[in-house]
Amino acid sequence: MSTAHRLSTAQLMEETQTFGFAESILPALAEDERFTPDSVFKPLHEEFGFTLDVAATAANARCPAFLTKADNALVSSWARQNVWCNHPWSQTPAWVEKAWREIVLGCPLIVMLMPDNRTHQRFWQTLVEPFREKVLHVEDGSVTLTTRFLPGRQHFGTPVDPQAKRRARPKHGCVLLIFRHIEPLLELVAGHREAPQLDLPFQVRT
Q: What is the mean pLDDT of the chain?
């Protein structure tokens, strides 16, 4: 994840068409740049086979293909990729909305890492809680959002301490948001055709 991806509130409102989440985004924080440790990433990569890191620098990218500040992941396409996303946590609402837009448009998989102490916040109660652990129908298949709370409290590297050797006690644990897009044929095999319609609080432009 890279601090280079942090955008101003005005940029987020304009570029992701958020419906108000960007208004409450915290100012950019120095600790927003963190390196995902192998202990977290490697088991997930073995499980999901990531092909694109959407919030990276050349120094901390976890996939051969990655997006940097110059690529601007909030407006770039994530299509046809298995996405890993350890984004700037101070701008989580805009990144969750972007994940929904991409998964509805057909991105097969997005795994997002974030703090586990945000479940009371508006973005979680609006974009996560109503949809998690459900199968929901979209125009060309169905989508699922599952949550996975990681055990313990993870230590992340920083630009000045990439290996996280300065072990300050983390203030929280982490949770994964796992978005999947299920194609129509697989949807039929899985018996999801009767799933309720996904009803997001914003429009996704095709």
A: 78
